[in-house]
Predict the structure of Reverse transcriptase domain-containing protein.
Amino acid sequence: MANIYMIKFDELLAEMIDKFNGIYRRYSDDFIIVIPQSDMAYEDIKVLKNEIIAKSNEINKLEIEHSKTQLLSYSKKTKSIYKYNDKERKKSSLSYLGFSFDGVSVSLRSNSIYKFIYRSKRTINKYITYKDARERFIKKEGPTFHVKKYNNHGIKVYRLANRTELYRKERIYMIAGTMSEQSFGTYHRSVVRQCLALFNIEPRSSMLAYAKKAQKEFQYKTRGKYRVVIQKQVEKQIQRNQRKVGGVDDEW
């Protein structure tokens, strides 16, 4: 629906930008324009920006906020990207569709890698909890009555679980303990695939699979002109995940 709604706007911008030997690309509500500096002065860029914002409001009744619109300049000489304001230019980076470019390296946006770190942490913590509970169930040791928390000084301490925490521990203990070998093995493989495996990754199966594909595409498109560190970012977090669960066994 967005593509249908934006047809006239796309055609207009593509025609406008083509006059300056530039390119216009849009994905959903996020678009980017690239124009060679030799074909347009900075002051003219500001005028064009305001014209595009006005056209968006006129054609599609969509308001583009000035504060969310960036004017960036890439310098081949310094291999840097600069953000312009009315007084000066400051070093910055170009972020688009989950990726970031600082003039030298192509990487995942900090927000994108943070989401993977956050989700990995939750998945790993849950897996460790269920794995420990299952081992205690098999040994008929019963759930623990203590919880591990951080005190005000950031130090991990053990204390007795309160009623809510104890209920949760008992529930996890029963769920994990009564899982069949097959169902727990499926769960284990799912966690390994998502957060722990560094090889034998199937397409579209995990964040690493996505990173590998993106790494390959960027390396091919840039032909070695820039550093591409997308895969390295994800692998680094996976190695942290592996250390958290106690290393890598033969199955991983």
